[in-house]
Design goal:
The complex is a heterodimer of chains A (about 300) and B (about 400). By secondary structure, chain A is an alpha/beta fold. Chain A has 11 helices and 10 strands.
Chain lengths: ~300, ~400
């Protein structure tokens, strides 16, 4: 079934920041999911900016219960729909804190039990709703309010947790990563996840201008740079095997880092060559692991002969 | 009426089957396990058309019920003690969202120290969560309160989740004669669940939105109003049950031999059975003693208690829980705290006895000792404290 791109089920007038990557993710996933969808949200930015009582941005049935239980609530919805013989699809949309950290117990249970649900994590790489604290999704060296760069700290000490692989290891038939900077790709992946029976997972990179420190007009550009530097890889896994990867002509990670205040300490007061090299090594490892590099033919030297 | 000798937990499972839940979501924990094992068997044998979700925790057990009920399904869960404590956050959430459910609590003590044995601390600790709480004295009542519980919880004047509490081991693992209603009888009493709102693509609604300070207070007011309305809805449902099946549950508090009583015992749950036997013996000895048993703790039947206790000279409360730190210099349990509030302005002394915690056995002699102590003005203390191990 073709995606109806004119379909708008996430209404305007919500309270997200201008340039919010997460609100774009909401709008896009609903285009792919369509009106026969029940959405479960975790507590977080999206829940708050979209549903200040008595207003709601959601034009599909929507429920929020708690921070960490969205996938358990979705399990109950799916079970009820099954018994009632109903055909609506169940989609969870939750942030990275709700997904990588506090909700892992419930997600693991729901995926192990094999409920027919699609779980979308909008990954903005920190707890944005509470004021930019680190989560298990925060990248190496990012400065957050609980992993601040300081005289003896370069920011977050650990690399991102590999949540997609953890869920693939649960036997999820379809796992994908995506980015709001590539809307068509994201929507196709959501559609695929929804139409694959069983628990499916889509992790969408959702740059946060407020939390990462960039101008709200640059959300898409930043999202693209994450892909182009190899710090975010868009791929698909079917039954645990990587089947499709977005290939790029890679740029140095510095081009991505220098655009964001959360990495400012890597450049000021002095350039930290050592730390930037470590982040470059993370991108290089990603490139190696997923084979994302497009090998260009060697440039011909102009002017000889 | 055909009496059957059944284990309490098995009787509960059979009652739940007759309530036709569409989703069962539960996690094993002693002493609730026999209920959920029995229900699993019932579903496995095709005797109940429910989806049984074998969740990974009590937290998810109740969260899944939130989703199921929001989708318009009747749901069921059961737990106790640590499991109920793990559900704490979901309990408040479910009541706030006005999602009706019946959950059985096989009452058990809370750790530390770890104890699998009975008291009522677990459900009492959640008395502010917005749920209705019904306490059974025996297995017949525990069974019947499930039918009544669904009927009240799903009533549009109420729309609140309900805990049916019965004492772990003392009732859950005890074989007693039970009159098990037929499916047809239960169907005649308990109509299918008709949600006021549900998640439905044909009519989209948003549930569980956040409220600013301009709205939050009003949500809490509405929640409390629903509790207040439940006082009458519980009476109504109990009366209707009595008309159909002969066992009347219209009273929120039961008065036992209270005519001309000078000393009244106030208690909840299975301890009341022992208390009734003790009262019979004391009455035979000429003592004017009676029992006021609280069946419905939430909503709290303050007026009913005030009326039932209007003519006594003194009151002994048996509290199978303790509100640690409450009561100033003396210990206090929740039943006494709330009863004193209900009786505020009267001069009847209320003496509290913290008793039977963590499964400590209570015999007829103990009840007699409490009454003697109360008559001597000696109360507001632990009963049966083994000072030699302190």
């Amino acid at each position: 079934m073709a995606i109806d791109k004119t379909c708008e089920l996430f209404d305007c007038g919500h309270r997200a920041c201008g340039g919010c990557g997460a609100s774009l993710a909401a709008r896009l996933f609903l285009k792919a999911a369509g009106p026969e969808t029940i959405v479960v949200s975790s507590t977080g930015c999206m829940e708050v900016f979209s549903t200040p009582y008595p207003e709601t941005a959601w034009k599909v049935p929507w429920i929020h219960s708690l921070f960490e239980n969205a996938s358990a609530v979705a399990s109950g919805i799916e079970a009820a729909l099954k018994v009632q013989g109903r055909k609506e699809k169940v989609v969870v949309i939750a942030g990275d804190g709700a997904t990588f950290d506090i909700g892992v117990l419930c997600i693991s249970g729901a995926f192990e039990r094999g409920h027919d649900i699609t779980y979308i994590c909008y990954d903005n790489e920190a707890y944005m709703n509470t004021g930019i604290q680190r989560s298990g999704a925060t990248p190496y060296d990012a400065s957050t309010t609980t992993s601040p760069a300081g005289k003896v700290s370069m920011g977050n000490k650990r690399p991102k947790k590999d949540m997609p692989r953890i869920l693939a290891a649960h036997g999820a038939p379809y796992v994908a990563t995506a980015s709001v900077a590539y809307p068509a790709d994201f929507m196709q992946k959501v559609e695929k996840a929804i139409n694959t029976p069983g628990p499916c997972y889509v992790q969408v990179h959702a740059p946060c201008c407020t939390g990462w420190g960039f101008d709200g007009s640059k959300t898409i550009a930043i999202g693209k740079l994450a892909i182009e530097t190899g710090l975010w890889v868009n791929y698909e896994m079917v039954n645990g095997e990587v089947t499709k990867v977005k290939k790029v002509v890679r740029k140095p990670v510095e081009e991505y880092l220098k655009e964001q205040k959360r990495f400012r300490h890597l450049f000021k007061p002095a350039r930290s060559t050592e730390e930037i090299a470590k982040i470059q090594a993370i991108a290089d490892a990603n490139a190696e692991k997923y084979g994302i590099d497009i090998k260009l033919p060697p440039k011909k030297d102009a002017g000889t002969d | 009426m055909a009496l059957e000798i059944m284990e309490g937990s098995i009787a509960i499972a059979q009652a739940v089957r007759r309530c036709r839940p569409q989703v069962v979501s539960a996690y094993p924990i002693t002493p609730q396990t026999h209920i959920v094992e029995s229900l699993a068997e019932i579903v496995a044998n095709g005797e109940l058309a429910a989806d049984y979700i074998t969740v990974e925790s009590e937290f998810s057990a109740l969260s899944a019920c939130v989703g199921a009920v929001a989708t318009g399904a009747r749901a069921y869960s059961a737990t106790t003690s640590q499991g109920l404590a793990l559900m704490f956050e979901v309990c408040f959430n479910m009541a706030g969202m006005r999602l009706p459910l019946v959950m059985t609590i096989a009452n058990r003590a809370l750790g530390a120290p770890l104890s699998i044995w009975n008291d009522q601390q677990d459900s009492i600790a959640l008395r502010d969560a917005g749920w209705l709480q019904l306490y059974a004295e025996d297995n017949q009542e525990a069974v019947d309160l499930h039918y009544i519980g669904y009927r009240v919880a799903e009533d549009h004047r109420v729309l609140l989740p309900t805990m049916v509490c019965f004492d772990g081991f003392i009732l859950s693992h005890t074989y007693e004669p039970v009159d098990m209603l037929s499916q047809e009888e239960v169907d005649a009493y308990l109509p299918p669940f008709v949600p006021k709102y549900r998640l439905d693509a044909a009519n989209p609604v948003s549930m569980g939105m956040y409220a600013t300070p301009d709205y939050y207070l009003e949500f809490r007011y509405e929640n409390d109003q629903a509790q207040k309305r439940a006082l009458e809805v519980v009476r109504e449902a109990g009366r209707e049950f009595g008309k159909l099946f002969g066992r009347d549950y219209s009273d929120l508090v039961e008065s036992y031999r209270m005519e001309d009583a000078e000393t009244a015992i106030v208690a909840m749950g299975s301890i009341c059975g022992t208390t009734k036997d003790a009262i019979d013996e004391m009455r035979a000895e000429g003592k004017k003693v009676g029992l006021v048993r609280i069946r419905c703790f939430r909503p709290f039947p303050a007026e009913d208690l005030k009326a039932a206790l209007a003519n006594v000279s003194r009151i002994a409360v048996l509290d199978k829980n303790i509100s640690l730190g409450a009561g100033g210099a003396t210990p206090r349990g929740a039943v006494a705290l709330e009863l004193k509030d209900a009786l505020y302005g009267t001069s009847t002394p209320v003496l509290d006895y913290i008793i039977a915690l963590g499964g400590r056995d209570v015999r007829i002699e103990d009840i007699k000792n409490v009454v003697a102590a109360c008559e001597a003005g000696d109360g507001d203390r632990f009963y049966g404290l083994r000072t030699e191990v302190l």
